[in-house]
Specification:
Elements: H1 6-20, H2 36-41, H3 43-48, E1 53-65, E2 68-75, E3 78-85, H4 86-89, E4 104-113, E5 119-130, H5 146-151, H6 153-159, H7 161-183, E6 187-188, E7 194-195, E8 207-210, E9 215-219, H8 224-233, E10 237-245, E11 257-266, H9 270-289, E12 293-296, E13 299-302, E14 308-311, H10 312-320, H11 329-338, H12 349-360, E15 369-375, E16 391-399, E17 402-409, H13 414-429, H14 440-446, E18 453-459, H15 460-468
Parallel strand pairs: 3-5, 6-10, 14-15
Antiparallel strand pairs: 1-2, 1-4, 2-3, 4-5, 7-9, 8-9, 10-11, 11-18, 12-13, 15-16, 16-17, 17-18
Helix pairs in contact: 6-7, 7-9, 7-15, 11-12, 13-14
Length: about 475
C-alpha cells in the first residue's frame, strides 16, 4: 500500500504475519463463561474452586517484557486484568507478540489476586477475536475534541466510559416513559414516516420522491395527524415514540433528526394533561435522577412543587404596558419596531406574538411552568378556548427558559379545522415556510366523528438533556447530524 503511515503499516504487517502463522484474525464466534463484572462479584467462589473462566473483550493495556505480560481487557461490564506467561501457554504465548492495544481477545484461565489485591486471570489460552488496524485515541483517554467525538462516536464510547453510562441512562429514560404510559392504559403504535402531506407542527419538511408512484413524499415533521386518525378509529389512548425530521438549522437544542413522543387521550382536555404531566416529570426525575430536585446547567429544577400555570399574554403585556392580544398586524409591527424586534421575516399576527414572547418571556421561565391559552393564530390544531374565543386551549411546558412539550385540547370540529388550515395555507402563499397545508384526507377522517381529545408532544432528546444535565442535544444523540468533512 503506497504512502501508508508507519503506525498503520506496523499493524498491517502484524496482520499479515498472523495469517502466515495460520491464525484467523477475524474468527466467527467465541464462547464466554463470564463477564468481567461476574468474575469480580463471584471471585471467591470461582478462585476457591480453581474454576476456569473464559472472557472476551478489547485489549486496553499491555505491559511487560520477555516471557511475562500483564494487560487489561474491557468488556461491556467493565475491565479486568490478565496475566500471561510463556511457561503457562507454550507456543500460544507467541500470539501476544502480534497484539496491539485495541485488539479484541478471548482468554481462558484461572483466577488469582496480585500483591496489590487486583483480581487477575492467569491466561492458559488466548484467542484473537478481531485485529485492530487503526490505533485507539492516544493515551486511551486522549479523545477530548468534541467535534471528533460526535463524528466518531464509537471512539468516544471507547475512550470515555462516562459517555457509555450516559447512553445507558438515555435508554432507561425511553423505557421509563413507556412504562409510565403503559401503566395508564396507553397503547404504543406506529404511524407512517413517509407522508403525502406534512402536518402536525410548524416546521419545514424534508422532501423525497417515490419512483414507483412518481410522487413527492415528506419525512414526517410530527406524528399528530395519524395518531388522531387512530382516536377517530376507536382507540382511546395511543402514543408513539419515534423519529421525526425537520429541515431546520442545528444548535444545542435542535437536530434535524430527533426522537419525538406524542400521546393522545380521548375524553380528556388540556387541564387533565397538565395534571398528568406533573406526574410524568416527577416520575422520571425520581427514576432517573433519584430526586425531585434536578440540576440543569446553572439551575436546580424543583419538581416537588406544583407547576406554575401562566397565561400566554401575561408576561408580554406586562413588558409592553398594554394588552397586545387585540392589536392588528400593522399595530404589532409598530410596537415591535419600538422594542427593536426584527420584523423582516414576520408574516401574520402569530409571528409577531411569538417574537414578543421569545424576547420578553421565554428566557425567564426557569422553574416548571405551563404557559397556557395561546393566541388562536399560533394554534391551528387546538380547540378554541371555551371562555376566550381569540385564544386556544393550548399550553407549552417551559423549564430553564426552554420549551419541553406542546399540548392541546385537540380541535375536533372538521369545519373549524378546514378554516384554520385554509388560514395556514394563505400564509404559505405569503412565503411562510413552516405553515400547515390543507390536509383534506385528515378533515375527511374528522367528519366521521372525533371525540373530545387531549394531546401532548415532546422532543425526547431535549428531555434527556434535562434529566442527564447535558448542555447540548448532540451529547445525548449517539450519531448527531454533522457538517461533512472537507
Amino acid at each position: 500500500m503506497e504512502n501508508t503511515p508507519e503506525f498503520l503499516q506496523h499493524r498491517l504487517d502484524k496482520l499479515k504475519a498472523l495469517r502466515e502463522m495460520g491464525i484467523n484474525p477475524f474468527p466467527y464466534r467465541y464462547d464466554r463463561t463470564h463477564s468481567s463484572a461476574e468474575i469480580i462479584s463471584n471471585y471467591n467462589k470461582l478462585a476457591d474452586a480453581q474454576a476456569k473462566v473464559s472472557l472476551a473483550g478489547r485489549l486496553i493495556s499491555l505491559r511487560g517484557h520477555g516471557k511475562t505480560l500483564f494487560g487489561h481487557l474491557m468488556d461491556n461490564a467493565g475491565k479486568i486484568q490478565i496475566y500471561a506467561r510463556a511457561d503457562d501457554m507454550g507456543d500460544g504465548f507467541q500470539l501476544f507478540k502480534k497484539l496491539d492495544i485495541g485488539d479484541f481477545l478471548g482468554v481462558e484461565g484461572t483466577l488469582f489476586t496480585t500483591k496489590t489485591g487486583e483480581i487477575t486471570i492467569r491466561v492458559e489460552k488466548a484467542t484473537l477475536l478481531a485485529k485492530s488496524i487503526r490505533p485507539l485515541p492516544e493515551k486511551w483517554h486522549g479523545l477530548q475534541d468534541k467535534e471528533l467525538r460526535y463524528r466518531h462516536r464509537y471512539l468516544d464510547l471507547i475512550a470515555n466510559s462516562e459517555i457509555k453510562e450516559l447512553f445507558i441512562k438515555r435508554a432507561k429514560i425511553n423505557k421509563e416513559i413507556r412504562e409510565f404510559l403503559d401503566q395508564r392504559g396507553f397503547l404504543e403504535v406506529e404511524t407512517p414516516v413517509l407522508q403525502p402531506i406534512y402536518g402536525g407542527a410548524a416546521a419545514k419538511p424534508f422532501v423525497t420522491h417515490h419512483n414507483a408512484l412518481d410522487i413527492d413524499l415528506y419525512l414526517r415533521i410530527a406524528d399528530e395527524l395519524y395518531l388522531k386518525r387512530l382516536i377517530i378509529g376507536g382507540f382511546e389512548k395511543v402514543y408513539e415514540m419515534a423519529k421525526d425530521f425537520r429541515n431546520e438549522g442545528m444548535d444545542k437544542y435542535h437536530n434535524p433528526e430527533f426522537t419525538m413522543l406524542e400521546f393522545y387521550w380521548a375524553y380528556a382536555d388540556y387541564n387533565d394533561l397538565m395534571e398528568m404531566l406533573e406526574e410524568l416529570y416527577r416520575y422520571l426525575a425520581q427514576k432517573i435522577v433519584g430526586a425531585l430536585q434536578v440540576p440543569f446547567g446553572d439551575f436546580m429544577i424543583d419538581f416537588s412543587k406544583p407547576f406554575t400555570r401562566q397565561p400566554y399574554f401575561q408576561g408580554i403585556n406586562e413588558v409592553c404596558g398594554q394588552d397586545i392580544s387585540g392589536l392588528s398586524e400593522e399595530e404589532l409591527a409598530k410596537l415591535a419596531a419600538k422594542f427593536e424586534i426584527d420584523i423582516s421575516k414576520l408574516k401574520g399576527r402569530g409571528d409577531y406574538f411569538n417574537a414578543f414572547f421569545e424576547k420578553f418571556v421565554e428566557p425567564n421561565l426557569i422553574q416548571p411552568t405551563f404557559l397556557k391559552d395561546f393566541p388562536i393564530e399560533l394554534s391551528p390544531l387546538a380547540k378554541v378556548h371555551r371562555e376566550h374565543p381569540c385564544l386556544a386551549e393550548r399550553f407549552e411546558l417551559f423549564i430553564a427558559g426552554f420549551e419541553f412539550g406542546n399540548a392541546f385540547s385537540e380541535l375536533n370540529d372538521p369545519d373549524d379545522q378546514r378554516a384554520r388550515m385554509a388560514q395556514q395555507s394563505a400564509l404559505i402563499e405569503r412565503g411562510h415556510e413552516e405553515a400547515h397545508p390543507v390536509d383534506e384526507d385528515f378533515i375527511f377522517a374528522m367528519e366521521h366523528g372525533m371525540p373530545p381529545t387531549a394531546g401532548y408532544g415532546i422532543g425526547v432528546d431535549r428531555l434527556a438533556m434535562l434529566l442527564t444535565n447535558s448542555s447540548s442535544i448532540r451529547d445525548i444523540i449517539l450519531f448527531p447530524t454533522m457538517k461533512p468533512e472537507e
